[in-house]
Design a protein that fits this description.
By secondary structure, the chain is an alpha/beta fold. It has helices at about 15-30, 55-65, 75-80, 85-95, 105-110, 120-125, 140-150, 165-175, 185-195, 205-210, 215-235, 240-250, 260-270, 285-295, 300-310, 320-330, 340-350, 350-370, 375-385, and strands at about 5-10, 35-40, 70, 100-105, 125-130, 155. It is elongated and about 70 Å long. Bound molecules: adenosine-5'-triphosphate (ATP). Adenosine-5'-triphosphate binds near residues 10, 17, 108 and 167.
Length: about 400
């Protein structure tokens, strides 16, 4: 029977501590293979600034070069959405029936194991192999081992001298100095080439590059157009120009992403707000975008998050930045509809008039097409005195 060690994580970026425990794990259980699996979106923690999936995968592939027993799998990234280990183990067992599976995890993950989705089921499918992360954490590990054993979850502690380092610490180091001794040279070269982790999360030039591979060329040009229009409007009305640029660039970040994974993220969050995304799929990307900024990009500014979240629907009580992004989306250079020039004039001269005009047009269109008007848009109409036509 062959023996595989599954090793999941964000690997953001992959460092010497990760590679070290792969080697130890292979020796300890005489594994045929250690399967390194970067998560699409970690369910257990807030990821901070998460480099794009394809970059984290590329970094893992570079890091394992020359180590035949180590294989990188893109399964969780292809699956998208939150990466639950229980689903991955089910998939592996279905693919390789009869295989002996081990799950490699570090101290932090082991101590919070009972918070994982279907953790007892995980314990039925695999034995946990636990790597110590720093001196002095063994006592806690042994205690947890006993507790889990009471639920039938088997575990074994690796006899590894801990290498106390984390990706969080390395990202900080990269941001401050542009380098880190904890990374393989080929990993560091790639990071420098792609400019990963070297910028603060809201660096506008970096964000323009970041979104490019996530969307079509058409959407990319639209996003930069919205950025420019939002910046103009922020100057006219005394809003924060930097926030306007960031929200403008990012407002459609999820628009071209696969809908299934977005829907899963949104349904698992508390952001739904009475909307049925199955009947109003065109609203999904703005809600998913607001979540993505927080989970993948370490952007938490409530004004930027709100501007992305409400850019399709509007809402009652919109603040200045939300209003600007809502209108900039309709009046960027790439927009071509009958009275776009009139809308642009209103945006320049009469913000309230522009909102009335935009809402009137949008609810008219939705009604004509017999589409559901979401509660936030109805509330915005109420506030601006816009009457919703009868179907
Ligand atoms: P971050 O700092 O971004 O949280 P991390 O360094 O903890 O990242 P992950 O990709 O989240 O790295 O870790 C994947 C797995 O590897 C987890 O089970 C984690 O506990 C374990 N791990 C990470 N770093 C070490 C280390 N230095 N020694 C032992 N295990 C580690």
């Amino acid at each position: 029977m062959s023996r595989t060690v599954l090793y999941g994580g964000t690997f953001n970026p992959i460092h010497r501590g990760h590679l070290n425990i792969c080697l130890r794990a292979r020796e300890a259980v005489e594994a045929d293979e250690v399967l390194l699996m970067p998560a699409a979106q970690p369910p257990h923690k807030f990821a901070g600034w998460l480099a794009p999936d394809q970059d984290r995968l590329a970094l893992c592939r570079l890091a394992v070069q020359g180590q035949d027993f180590l294989r990188v799998s893109d399964y969780e990234i292809r699956r998208g959405g939150r990466s639950y280990t229980v689903d991955t183990l089910r998939y592996l067992l279905a693919e390789r029936p009869g295989e002996e599976l081990w799950l490699l995890i570090g101290t932090d993950m082991f101590l919070t194991f009972t918070q994982w989705r279907e953790w007892e089921e995980i314990g039925r499918m695999a034995t946990l192999l636990v790597a110590s992360r720093e001196e002095g954490d063994r006592e806690a590990l042994v205690g947890q081992q006993l507790l889990l054993a009471g639920h039938g979850v088997r575990s074994q502690l690796l006899q590894n001298p801990p290498l106390p380092m984390s990706s969080t610490q390395i990202r900080r180091e990269l941001g401050e100095t542009g380098g880190s001794e904890q990374l393989a040279p080929q990993v560091l070269d790639y990071i420098r080439q792609r400019g990963l982790y070297l910028h603060p999360p809201e660096d506008v030039e970096y964000l323009r590059e970041y979104i490019r591979p996530l969307m079509t060329e058409y959407r990319y040009r639209h996003s930069l157009g919205v950025e420019r229009q939002a910046v103009r409007m922020a100057r006219w009305y005394g809003a924060d120009v930097h926030k306007a640029a960031v929200a403008g660039i990012l407002h459609d970040i999820c628009k071209d992403m696969p809908k299934g994974a977005l829907l899963q993220n949104v349904l698992e969050s508390d952001i739904i707000n009475g909307i049925d995304f199955r009947t109003s799929p065109q609203l999904l990307h703005s809600y998913a975008g607001a979540l993505y900024l927080q989970s993948h990009m370490d952007i938490h500014d409530p004004e930027i998050i709100g501007a992305v979240r409400y850019h399709t629907t509007g809402r009652a009580g919109m603040n200045l930045l939300e209003t600007i992004i809502y209108l900039a989306d309709l009046t960027s250079e790439d927009r071509e509809y009958g009275d776009v020039e009139e809308m642009r004039r209103l945006c320049r001269e009469d913000l309230r008039g522009a909102m009335v005009h935009a809402l009137t047009y949008i609810v008219g269109e939705l009604t004509a097409k017999n589409r559901t008007i979401c509660p936030d848009t109805i509330a915005a109409c109420g506030e601006y005195g816009v009457t919703i036509p009868k179907p």
